[in-house]
Amino acid sequence: MAKLFEIRDIVFSPGGGKRQVRVSGTLDEGSFMGVRGPSGSGKTTLLRVLARLRGAGEGQALLEGRGWSEFTPVEWRRKVHYMSQKPVIFDGTVGQNLRMPFGLAAVHGDTAFDGSRVSAYLERLYLSESILEQDARTLSGGEAARIALIRAIIVAPRVLLLDEPLAALDLRAASAVTDLVCEWACEEPGRGVVIVSHAGDIAALPGISYVETGVEEGGSK
Amino acid sequence: MNNGIIPISDVQLALSVSLVLVAGGISALLRLGLLNSLLWGTVRTFVQLTFVGYILKYVFAANNLWIIAGLIVVMCFIAARASVKRTPNVPNYPVTLAFWSILASTVLVGFVVVRIIINPEPWYSARIVIPVFGMILGNSMNGIALSLDRLYGEVRSRADEIESLLAFGATPWEAVRDCVREAVRSGMTPTINSLMVVGLVSLPGMMTGQILSGADPHEAVRYQIVVMLMIAAAVALGCLLLVGLSYKRMFTPDGALKAEVSSSKK
């Protein structure tokens, strides 16, 4: 499998403290990379650094061999999408929330909203079609998490950075989400997933490799 | 000859202090802790206005374009400084940005009013220019302070949404557009409210002043209409300029939300 994404010697300070973490790793097409480390070790920070929502002290990430400095921040985030642990819901209906990214120039220019795809994903995640008309602020935590995931994958990023996507889900929904993300990553070439997860068994995900945030630069844990 | 103005003697002026004593008495009775501020405010009002009276007398007599321009620049700087101090959500905001926004909006609108609408002889007549610019500044100052404070408050409270938009590939402008809209709306609301109730609930100070000094009420009303509209234009322009200059300061060169306004400081 071709190499899709590489973390090359990225150094950052979780929480802005003195502790520095150095991370390297590679992600192949259609594969998963798990981020491991104890609480507070910087797993979320790493994902935010990879999405260029936060600066790194050193190093860079590469997408298909091109360093992030070769992309504008907007181009990079369009291709390397970060989904936060707490699902972000905007005012309006669920349908409007799902269409929201398509109002952005960067998304509107290269991807069209596909209603039939959304319907299929809703069904896969045990959500009824009528939820599209529901006020998004009334969603439960688990529903919001699934809607946020659908919104993240329908904009077709190349690399999906998922922060605890299963945390708010029951076993059945978690299993459906895992299956859907696996299928999404494998159905087209040039896709991959970096995932932080305590829940579920991510060891079974296809081609899983790991990076550690629990190791400080210099080697001490 | 006093052009219809009923002069106020020193004794009468001193008598007006008794009005503050009423407010001070209430403050003391209810233990509001405002007595010292009231007294200090009264002293400052006397000193500042007397001082300004002397300056205006000199400026009006000189009627020199450069002296007037210099005075306006100083007034803009003081207004900019006062407005950034009134923004609890915005620590250490640079006065220069507020200054340029206030200066640009005030000069643009003030020039149109003085040169095109009122058109005195000479056009920079200090008797017209100073009060007109003063009224614009007084209102712009409040407007931009409200806008700036609201902008930072909105961005902080909606940081999750903004970062989510950025993560989808939004530009900083796309990500904060709604916050900017709210900020400008907030800055303009008092001005729009005053447009709605002027003459019904309140008689504006300038019009009242003209009537007190013996002017024809119809003439005073015409002036007041011009003043109200120029204030609306200047406040809108000032808010828009300042918010437009400010939102980019909340982002890093990479277009990410800075840690001080971000929801996640990790």
Helix content of chain B: over 70%
Order of helices and strands of chain A: EEEHEEHEHHHHEHEE
Largest sheet of chain A: 5 strands, parallel
Number of strands of chain B: 0
SSE string of chain B, helices as H and strands as E = HHHHHHHHH
Any idea what the radius of gyration of chain A is? 17 Å
Low-confidence stretches of chain A: none
CATH fold naming of chain A: Rossmann fold
Give average pLDDT of chain B, whole number: 88
Number of strands of chain A: 9
Largest protein interface, residues of each chain: A-B, 31 and 21 residues
In the CATH hierarchy, the architecture of chain A is 3-Layer(aba) Sandwich
Shape of chain B: globular
Describe this structure in words.
The complex is a heterodimer of chains A (221) and B (266). Chain A has 221 residues and is an alpha/beta fold. Chain A has one domain (3-212): P-loop containing nucleotide triphosphate hydrolases (Rossmann fold, 3-Layer(aba) Sandwich), CATH 3.40.50. Helix content of chain A is 30%, strand content 22%. Chain A has 7 helices and 9 strands. Chain A has helices at 43-50, 73-79, 94-99, 105-108, 115-124, 141-154, 171-187; strands at 3-12, 21-28, 32-36, 58-63, 66-67, 80-83, 159-163, 192-196, 209-212. Chain A has a 5-stranded parallel sheet, sandwiched between helices. The radius of gyration of chain A is 17 Å and the shape is globular. With 266 residues, chain B is mainly alpha-helical. Chain B has 2 domains: 7-62; 64-250, no CATH class. Helices cover 74% and strands 0% of the residues of chain B. In chain B, helix 1 packs antiparallel against helix 2 (35-62) and helix 3 runs parallel beside helix 5. The termini of chain B are far apart. In chain B, 33% of the residues are buried. The chains are: A alpha/beta (221), B mainly alpha (266). The interface between A and B is medium-sized, with 31 and 21 residues.
